[in-house]
Specification:
The complex is a heterodimer. Chain A has two domains: 79 residues, no CATH class; 203 residues, Sandwich (Protocatechuate 3,4-Dioxygenase, subunit A). In chain A, 8% of the residues lie in helices and 28% in strands. Chain A contains four helices and 17 strands. In chain A, strand 4 and strand 5 form a beta hairpin. Chain B is mainly beta. Chain B has one domain: Protocatechuate 3,4-Dioxygenase, subunit A. Helix content of chain B is 10%, strand content 28%. Chain B has four helices and eleven strands, in the order ααβββββββααββββ. Chain B has an eight-stranded mixed beta sheet. In chain B, strands 2-10 form a two-stranded parallel ribbon. In chain B, a hairpin with a 2-residue loop joins strand 8 and strand 9. Chain B is globular, with a radius of gyration of 17 Å. The two termini of chain B are 25 Å apart. The chains are: A mainly beta, B mainly beta. At the A-B interface, strand 6, helix 3, strand 8, strand 9 and strand 14 of A face helix 1, strand 6 and strand 11 of B. Strand 6 of chain A pairs parallel with strand 11 of chain B.
Chain lengths: 321, 195
């Protein structure tokens, strides 16, 4: 008997269990239930948290109390449409710790107390929904979106990739924001005082929505390395900042993309906040010569992974397979 | 062997120039100059108008005015993404005063995972240089003392730290303001969540 069987030993007919979240039209009750399928393929379950007002028997739903303002067919539709499971716990050992004395800015900005574990409610399992109406057609073209009558200077590149969740499901129609320095390593920011010049034709700001397969692309100039005050003059390898919204507030992530072969990568105190080498490797974009645009652009591929979202506690695979 | 899943991409600091990507006009770019991500209250939005604001200080008590604050909340009825209310806001701090603000509505209540109703709150996430992975906290409302008392999340917080999550209410002219000063580290350190 495997994991699922052991947990549900008191219910020997159970083959699979599913956790469903449902918001009835009155919106105030978040309901949670197990939907079970027995060995004949029949489903059953009940809304435990609110006293079994809705029952599921032999695959059909019934509503026992008008106060729910829910009709059975409405519930049926929701059951088909709802994929709102909880998100996997974030593996904090894979992320940089808040405090790392080799990255000096963390010393006074890292909480002393441990984080408090929080169960996920709708506020964590939903997030802003951005659409094409939020974007300008040039938002994913950093070569074009800040031109003042000329082309920006530097190596022309396209960055593309796919955003998946930890279960390898595409993260669809979600916003990615990017920002970066110009080819000389200078940011167009009021606080950047590096002596390399601004490029009048380059802003370094872009955004793009992932498509139905979680894919994205944008065109830009390869950013330059630059020095920064840390422990003396440290150097940042060339990088592009990525901000991802995913489908929910729980999936929010900001990270950075580096370039394959950059000798500054192993020397960077910010990259070295990442505990595992495998984590660093995940942030290094690979040169993608198959996608190269002849006589125009080199192409880098950069895939990202956001937190996975459970649809089921158990993957509905019968034991023994 | 446990089942293997893909690993989440590791976080990296948003850095000191986060505004270029997040709110380019604040960085000094002539781009999206009309965008006001910290105003969530259009004419069609139902609910009580409020302003949430505060400062963010580091472990030495210095202002951290480069932090970008993002908020996410329910609409006035406690729903998410249902009424046309966008629910998400983003604010930079004023470089001189360190004050950030978001003009929004007071959110309605909705249940926690257990089914128990929560006190109204707004989720906040902080991004900045020196913050390797964004910090996540909640803003609760001082004038909801009764429901705050019964809230399942606040109840799990050490009572001595609970005030770090509760915004103080005052009136500024006709405006209702809730102020929450966030402390990243040390005395009065804000409670931050893992979820």
């Amino acid at each position: 008997m495997g994991r699922a069987g052991a947990l549900f030993a008191e219910r020997p007919v159970l083959l699979a269990a599913r956790v469903i979240f449902l918001w009835p039209p009155d919106g105030h009750a978040l309901m949670r239930t197990f939907i079970m399928r027995d060995e004949n393929g029949r489903t059953s379950g009940s809304w435990g948290a609110i006293g079994a007002l809705i029952q599921i028997k032999d695959g059909s739903l019934s509503v026992r109390d008008d106060r729910m303002l829910c009709e059975a067919r409405e519930v049926n539709r929701e059951l088909k449409m709802t994929h709102l499971g909880e998100f996997n716990r974030r593996d904090r050992t894979w992320h940089p710790p808040a405090f790392d004395p080799n990255y000096k800015s963390t010393v006074l900005r890292s909480p002393n107390r441990p984080l408090l574990a929080l169960g996920q409610s709708t506020n964590e399992m939903t997030g802003p929904v951005f659409g094409t109406h939020h974007l300008d057609p040039l938002d994913n073209d950093l070569i074009a979106n800040y031109q003042q009558g000329g082309e920006p200077i530097g190596e022309r590149i396209i960055v593309h990739g796919q955003v998946l969740d930890e279960m390898a499901r595409p993260v669809r129609n979600s916003l990615i924001e990017v920002w970066q320095a110009n080819a000389g390593g200078r940011y167009r920011h009021r606080n950047d005082t590096y002596l390399a010049p601004l490029d009048p034709n380059f802003g370094g700001c872009g955004r793009v929505l992932t498509d139905d397969e979680g894919r994205y692309f944008f065109r830009t100039i390869k950013p330059g390395a630059y020095p920064w005050r840390n422990i003396g003059s440290d150097w940042r390898p060339a990088h592009i900042h990525f901000s991802l919204f995913g489908e929910a507030f729980a999936q929010r992530l900001i990270t950075q993309m580096y370039f394959e072969g950059d000798p500054l990568i192993p020397l960077c105190p910010i990259i070295n906040t990442i505990p595992e080498r495998g984590g660093v490797e995940q942030l290094i974009a690979k040169l993608d010569m198959a996608e190269m645009v002849p006589f125009d652009c080199l192409v880098y591929r950069f895939d990202l992974v956001l937190r996975g979202r459970r649809q089921t506690y158990f993957e509905n695979k019968p034991e023994g397979h | 062997m446990p089942v293997d899943y893909l690993k989440e991409s590791p976080s990296q600091t948003a850095g000191p120039y986060v505004h270029i990507g997040a709110m380019p006009a604040h960085a000094g770019l002539n781009l999206r100059t009309q965008e006001k991500l910290n105003v969530l209250t259009g004419p069609d939005v139902e609910g009580e108008r409020i302003r949430i604001e505060g400062t963010i200080k580091d472990g030495a008590g210095s202002l951290a005015p480069d932090v970008v604050v993002e908020s996410w909340q329910a609409d006035a009825k406690g729903h998410h993404n249902q009424s046309g209310f966008f629910g998400w806001g983003r604010a930079a701090c004023d470089p001189a005063t360190g004050l950030w603000f978001i003009e929004t509505i007071k959110p309605g209540r909705f249940a926690a995972r257990s089914g128990k109703m929560q006190a109204p709150f707004i989720s906040l996430q902080l991004f900045a240089r020196g913050i390797n992975i964004h910090l996540h906290t909640r803003l609760y409302f001082e004038d909801e003392a009764e429901v705050n008392q019964a809230d399942p999340v606040l109840s799990a917080v050490d009572p001595t730290h609970r005030p770090t999550l509760i915004a103080k209410k005052h009136k500024r002219g006709s405006e209702t303001v809730y102020r929450l000063d966030i402390v990243l580290q040390g005395e009065g350190e804000t409670v931050f969540f893992d979820m």
